[in-house]
Protein backbone atom coordinates (compact mmCIF):
# COMPACT_ATOMS: atom_id res chain seq x y z
CA UNK A 1 0.00 0.00 0.00
CA UNK A 2 1.00 3.64 -0.35
CA UNK A 3 0.87 5.71 2.81
CA UNK A 4 0.07 9.23 1.66
CA UNK A 5 1.62 12.21 3.45
CA UNK A 6 1.77 15.89 2.56
CA UNK A 7 5.08 15.50 0.72
CA UNK A 8 5.51 11.79 0.06
CA UNK A 9 3.81 8.55 -0.90
CA UNK A 10 5.51 5.86 1.19
CA UNK A 11 5.36 2.33 -0.22
CA UNK A 12 4.61 -0.01 2.69
CA UNK A 13 4.31 -3.80 2.62
CA UNK A 14 3.55 -6.45 5.19
CA UNK A 15 3.13 -10.20 5.46
CA UNK A 16 2.58 -12.81 8.13
CA UNK A 17 0.01 -13.25 10.90
CA UNK A 18 -1.25 -10.46 13.14
CA UNK A 19 -1.67 -10.74 16.87
CA UNK A 20 1.75 -12.19 17.66
CA UNK A 21 5.31 -11.04 17.17
CA UNK A 22 5.85 -7.99 14.96
CA UNK A 23 9.04 -6.81 13.27
CA UNK A 24 9.36 -3.56 11.34
CA UNK A 25 12.46 -3.13 9.17
CA UNK A 26 14.21 -0.17 7.57
CA UNK A 27 16.52 -0.43 4.57
CA UNK A 28 19.97 1.05 4.11
CA UNK A 29 21.34 4.14 2.36
CA UNK A 30 19.82 3.70 -1.13
CA UNK A 31 18.51 0.23 -0.31
CA UNK A 32 14.73 0.02 -0.01
CA UNK A 33 12.62 -2.26 2.15
CA UNK A 34 13.22 -4.88 -0.55
CA UNK A 35 16.45 -5.71 1.30
CA UNK A 36 14.30 -7.51 3.89
CA UNK A 37 12.12 -9.56 1.52
CA UNK A 38 14.03 -12.83 1.93
CA UNK A 39 14.43 -12.84 5.74
CA UNK A 40 10.74 -11.97 5.96
CA UNK A 41 9.85 -15.05 3.90
CA UNK A 42 11.26 -17.10 6.78
CA UNK A 43 10.02 -14.95 9.65
CA UNK A 44 6.48 -14.52 8.32
CA UNK A 45 5.50 -18.00 9.45
CA UNK A 46 5.27 -16.63 13.00
CA UNK A 47 5.86 -12.88 12.73
CA UNK A 48 3.94 -9.97 11.32
CA UNK A 49 6.63 -8.50 9.07
CA UNK A 50 6.45 -4.88 7.92
CA UNK A 51 8.85 -2.87 5.81
CA UNK A 52 8.69 0.18 3.60
CA UNK A 53 10.72 2.08 1.05
CA UNK A 54 12.11 5.12 2.85
CA UNK A 55 12.29 8.42 1.01
CA UNK A 56 14.67 8.36 -1.92
CA UNK A 57 14.39 4.59 -2.46
CA UNK A 58 12.22 2.01 -4.17
CA UNK A 59 8.65 2.88 -5.13
CA UNK A 60 8.26 5.69 -2.59
CA UNK A 61 7.69 9.13 -4.11
CA UNK A 62 9.28 12.07 -2.28
CA UNK A 63 8.12 15.59 -3.15
CA UNK A 64 9.62 17.66 -0.35
CA UNK A 65 12.92 19.37 0.32
CA UNK A 66 16.22 17.66 1.10
CA UNK A 67 15.80 14.30 2.84
CA UNK A 68 17.11 14.52 6.40
CA UNK A 69 17.46 12.16 9.37
CA UNK A 70 14.53 13.58 11.35
CA UNK A 71 12.28 13.24 8.31
CA UNK A 72 13.16 9.53 8.11
CA UNK A 73 12.42 9.01 11.80
CA UNK A 74 9.10 10.85 11.48
CA UNK A 75 8.16 8.56 8.58
CA UNK A 76 8.94 5.48 10.64
CA UNK A 77 6.45 6.54 13.28
CA UNK A 78 3.91 7.40 10.57
CA UNK A 79 4.17 3.82 9.34
CA UNK A 80 3.81 2.40 12.85
CA UNK A 81 0.75 4.53 13.54
CA UNK A 82 -0.90 3.88 10.17
CA UNK A 83 -0.56 0.12 10.62
CA UNK A 84 -1.57 0.34 14.29
CA UNK A 85 1.69 -1.14 15.56
CA UNK A 86 1.82 -0.37 19.25
CA UNK A 87 5.08 -2.22 19.92
CA UNK A 88 7.52 -4.16 17.76
CA UNK A 89 11.06 -5.32 17.18
CA UNK A 90 12.68 -2.62 15.03
CA UNK A 91 15.36 -3.59 12.51
CA UNK A 92 17.72 -1.51 10.40
CA UNK A 93 20.41 -2.26 7.83
CA UNK A 94 23.52 -0.07 7.36
CA UNK A 95 22.50 3.62 7.41
CA UNK A 96 19.06 2.46 8.48
CA UNK A 97 20.65 1.69 11.83
CA UNK A 98 20.83 5.41 12.51
CA UNK A 99 17.09 5.77 11.91
CA UNK A 100 16.44 2.80 14.19
CA UNK A 101 18.63 4.15 17.00
CA UNK A 102 17.09 7.62 16.75
CA UNK A 103 13.58 6.16 16.85
CA UNK A 104 14.47 4.08 19.90
CA UNK A 105 15.84 7.18 21.59
CA UNK A 106 12.67 9.15 20.80
CA UNK A 107 10.12 6.56 21.98
CA UNK A 108 11.70 3.45 23.54
CA UNK A 109 8.33 2.28 24.83
CA UNK A 110 7.25 1.54 21.24
CA UNK A 111 9.90 -1.16 20.80
CA UNK A 112 10.54 -4.58 22.31
CA UNK A 113 14.01 -4.90 20.78
CA UNK A 114 16.39 -3.82 18.03
CA UNK A 115 18.16 -5.60 15.17
CA UNK A 116 21.14 -3.78 13.66
CA UNK A 117 22.71 -5.32 10.53
CA UNK A 118 26.04 -3.84 9.45
CA UNK A 119 24.68 -0.69 11.01
CA UNK A 120 25.90 2.84 11.49
CA UNK A 121 25.73 4.76 14.77
CA UNK A 122 27.26 7.96 13.38
CA UNK A 123 26.99 9.67 10.03
CA UNK A 124 30.26 11.53 9.63
CA UNK A 125 31.37 11.78 6.01
CA UNK A 126 34.66 9.93 5.66
CA UNK A 127 36.93 10.52 2.70
CA UNK A 128 35.40 7.45 1.08
CA UNK A 129 31.87 8.71 1.67
CA UNK A 130 32.70 12.08 0.13
CA UNK A 131 34.09 10.32 -2.93
CA UNK A 132 30.91 8.24 -3.07
CA UNK A 133 28.77 11.39 -3.04
CA UNK A 134 30.87 12.96 -5.78
CA UNK A 135 30.66 9.74 -7.78
CA UNK A 136 26.87 9.79 -7.53
CA UNK A 137 26.81 13.30 -8.97
CA UNK A 138 29.17 12.45 -11.84
CA UNK A 139 28.12 8.91 -12.77
CA UNK A 140 25.32 7.49 -10.68
CA UNK A 141 24.98 4.16 -12.51
CA UNK A 142 28.70 3.44 -12.49
CA UNK A 143 29.04 4.45 -8.85
CA UNK A 144 26.14 2.21 -7.86
CA UNK A 145 27.74 -0.74 -9.65
CA UNK A 146 31.00 -0.23 -7.76
CA UNK A 147 29.09 0.20 -4.52
CA UNK A 148 27.13 -3.02 -4.98
CA UNK A 149 30.28 -4.94 -5.90
CA UNK A 150 31.88 -3.75 -2.66
CA UNK A 151 28.75 -4.57 -0.66
CA UNK A 152 28.50 -8.15 -1.96
CA UNK A 153 31.94 -9.76 -2.30
CA UNK A 154 30.63 -13.30 -1.81
CA UNK A 155 31.71 -15.54 -4.70
CA UNK A 156 28.41 -17.44 -4.78
CA UNK A 157 26.20 -14.35 -5.09
CA UNK A 158 26.26 -13.16 -8.72
CA UNK A 159 22.45 -13.23 -8.88
CA UNK A 160 22.21 -11.34 -5.61
CA UNK A 161 24.59 -8.65 -6.91
CA UNK A 162 22.46 -8.19 -10.01
CA UNK A 163 19.32 -7.93 -7.87
CA UNK A 164 20.94 -5.46 -5.45
CA UNK A 165 22.00 -3.28 -8.37
CA UNK A 166 18.39 -3.08 -9.54
CA UNK A 167 17.32 -2.14 -6.00
CA UNK A 168 19.76 0.75 -5.62
CA UNK A 169 19.11 2.02 -9.16
CA UNK A 170 15.54 2.79 -8.11
CA UNK A 171 17.07 5.69 -6.24
CA UNK A 172 18.75 8.59 -8.05
CA UNK A 173 21.76 10.86 -7.72
CA UNK A 174 19.94 13.69 -5.98
CA UNK A 175 18.34 11.56 -3.33
CA UNK A 176 21.42 9.40 -2.85
CA UNK A 177 23.51 12.47 -2.09
CA UNK A 178 20.85 13.94 0.21
CA UNK A 179 20.57 10.69 2.14
CA UNK A 180 24.35 10.47 2.53
CA UNK A 181 25.13 14.08 3.33
CA UNK A 182 22.10 14.45 5.59
CA UNK A 183 23.64 12.02 8.06
CA UNK A 184 26.82 14.06 8.50
CA UNK A 185 25.66 15.78 11.67
CA UNK A 186 24.36 12.66 13.41
CA UNK A 187 26.55 11.03 16.05
CA UNK A 188 24.97 8.67 18.57
CA UNK A 189 28.20 7.25 19.96
CA UNK A 190 27.56 8.98 23.27
CA UNK A 191 23.96 7.72 23.43
CA UNK A 192 24.52 3.99 22.97
CA UNK A 193 24.91 3.26 26.68
CA UNK A 194 21.38 4.64 27.17
CA UNK A 195 19.84 1.93 24.97
CA UNK A 196 17.89 -0.36 27.29
CA UNK A 197 16.32 -2.61 24.68
CA UNK A 198 17.39 -6.16 23.78
CA UNK A 199 19.68 -5.59 20.81
CA UNK A 200 20.94 -8.06 18.22
CA UNK A 201 23.91 -6.96 16.14
CA UNK A 202 24.66 -8.88 12.93
CA UNK A 203 27.77 -8.09 10.91
CA UNK A 204 29.47 -9.70 7.94
CA UNK A 205 33.11 -10.44 8.68
CA UNK A 206 34.08 -9.36 5.13
CA UNK A 207 32.17 -6.07 5.27
CA UNK A 208 34.27 -3.26 3.77
CA UNK A 209 31.45 -0.68 3.81
CA UNK A 210 30.99 -0.64 7.59
CA UNK A 211 33.88 -2.42 9.32
CA UNK A 212 33.21 -5.00 12.01
CA UNK A 213 34.65 -2.73 14.77
CA UNK A 214 31.56 -0.53 14.36
CA UNK A 215 29.34 -3.31 15.67
CA UNK A 216 31.96 -4.31 18.23
CA UNK A 217 31.84 -0.76 19.58
CA UNK A 218 28.03 -0.81 19.79
CA UNK A 219 28.17 -4.22 21.46
CA UNK A 220 30.55 -2.84 24.09
CA UNK A 221 28.19 0.07 24.84
CA UNK A 222 24.73 -1.51 24.67
CA UNK A 223 24.22 -3.60 27.78
CA UNK A 224 22.99 -7.14 27.13
CA UNK A 225 23.43 -6.92 23.37
CA UNK A 226 24.48 -9.88 21.28
CA UNK A 227 26.94 -9.63 18.39
CA UNK A 228 26.89 -12.24 15.62
CA UNK A 229 29.75 -12.15 13.10
CA UNK A 230 29.11 -13.99 9.84
CA UNK A 231 32.27 -15.48 8.34
CA UNK A 232 32.80 -14.94 4.62
CA UNK A 233 29.89 -12.49 4.41
CA UNK A 234 29.86 -8.90 3.16
CA UNK A 235 27.72 -5.86 3.90
CA UNK A 236 24.24 -7.15 3.01
CA UNK A 237 23.54 -10.50 4.72
CA UNK A 238 19.80 -9.80 4.47
CA UNK A 239 20.27 -10.47 0.73
CA UNK A 240 23.18 -12.93 0.70
CA UNK A 241 22.44 -14.95 3.86
CA UNK A 242 18.74 -14.34 4.58
CA UNK A 243 18.07 -17.69 6.27
CA UNK A 244 20.90 -17.08 8.71
CA UNK A 245 19.64 -13.57 9.48
CA UNK A 246 16.11 -14.86 10.12
CA UNK A 247 17.41 -17.69 12.29
CA UNK A 248 19.48 -15.31 14.42
CA UNK A 249 16.50 -13.01 14.92
CA UNK A 250 14.28 -15.87 16.03
CA UNK A 251 16.96 -17.36 18.29
CA UNK A 252 17.47 -14.01 20.02
CA UNK A 253 13.88 -12.89 20.49
CA UNK A 254 11.82 -16.08 20.81
Automatic annotation (TrEMBL):
The keyword Membrane does not apply. The keyword Phosphoprotein does not apply. InterPro entries: AB_hydrolase_1, AB_hydrolase_fold, AB_hydrolase_sf. Keywords: Hydrolase. Residues 22-157 form the AB hydrolase-1 domain. It holds the Pfam family Abhydrolase_1. GO terms for molecular function: hydrolase activity. Transmembrane segments: none annotated. GO terms for cellular component: membrane. PANTHER family: AB HYDROLASE SUPERFAMILY PROTEIN YCLE, MONOACYLGLYCEROL LIPASE. This is Alpha/beta hydrolase. It comes from Ramlibacter albus. The lineage of its organism: Bacteria, Pseudomonadati, Pseudomonadota, Betaproteobacteria, Burkholderiales.
Amino acid sequence: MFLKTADADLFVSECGPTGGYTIVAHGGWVGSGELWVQPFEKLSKRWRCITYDHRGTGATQHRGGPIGPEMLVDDLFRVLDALEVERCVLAGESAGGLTVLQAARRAPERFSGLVLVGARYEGALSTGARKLAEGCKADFAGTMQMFVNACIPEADCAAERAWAHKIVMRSGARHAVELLEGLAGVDLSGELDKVRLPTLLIHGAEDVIRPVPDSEFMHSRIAGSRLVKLDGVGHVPTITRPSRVAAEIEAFFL
